[in-house]
Amino acid sequence: MFRLVAGHAPQAPKTPFVLLVLSLLGGGLVALLLLSSASSADAFTQRNLQQENRALSLREQQLTREVAASEAPGELAKRAQKLGLVEGGKPAVLVVGPAGRARVIGTPVPATSPPPPPKPTPTPSATPGASASGSPTPARPGAQPSGTPTPTTKPTTKPATKPATKPTTRPSPKPTPTPGGTP
After folding, report:
1. Helix pair angle (15-70, 73-82), 10° resolution
2. β-strand partners of 130
3. Smallest Cα–Cα separation from 170: which of 93, 85, 71?
4. Which tens digits make up the pLDDT trace of 69-103?
5. What are phi and psi of 102, to 5 degrees?
6. How far is the CA of 126 from the CAs of 47, 153, 163, in angstroms?
7. Alpha helices in the chain (DSSP H)
8. By C-alpha distance, which of 98, 94, 77 is closest to 86?
9. Which distant-in-sequence residues (6+ apart) come within 8 Å of 100 by Cβ?
10. Strands 93-96 and 102-105: what pairing?
11. What pTM did the predictor assign?
12. I want to staple 102 with a disulfide (CB 3.0 to 4.6 A). Which of 19, 58, 135, 181 is the partner?
C-alpha cells in the first residue's frame, strides 16, 4: 500500500482526512440551522408573551380604575343606602387631658332612618269571565257559567304581596364614665 520513494517519507491517504473535514463542516451547518430555527421559535413565543403582557397590563389598569370608582365616597353612599344603612348622627368626642382627666365634648345624636316606603294598595282583581273592558265574555256552548269554577280546575288567585319591612335602627351607645373623669 505504501510506496517507498527514494528520499521521501511514506504518504498517508488523503480521502479519510477530506471526509473528516467535510463531515465536521456539514455537522456545523446542521447545528447552526437547528440553533437558528430554535431561536426564531423563541422569538415568536417572546412576541406572543409580550402581547399577552400588554393585554394584562391594560386589564389591570381598567380594574384599578373600577376599584377607584367604586371606592369614591358618593358610590359608597349609594351602595350603603341600597343596603338599608343610614348616615350616622353627630357623635360626641371623649377627650383625655394631660392630667389624665377625661371629658365629653358634644352630645351624641342617634342616626335616624328614612320613613318606610308607603304600603302598596291592593288593586281590585278582575272577576273571572270578565274582559279588560269590564264586559263579560260570551260563554262557550256546553261550558259552565262564568264565575263558578269547574271541579277539575282551581280558581286562580294572586299571591299577596309582602309589605316592605322597616329597617331597624340601633340605639346609640351611651358614653361610659371613666374613673376620675366627668361623664
Report:
1. 70
2. 136
3. 85
4. 999 999 999 998 898 888 888 888 999 999 989 99
5. -110, 145
6. 69, 18, 22
7. 15-70, 73-82
8. 77
9. 180
10. antiparallel
11. 0.37
12. 181
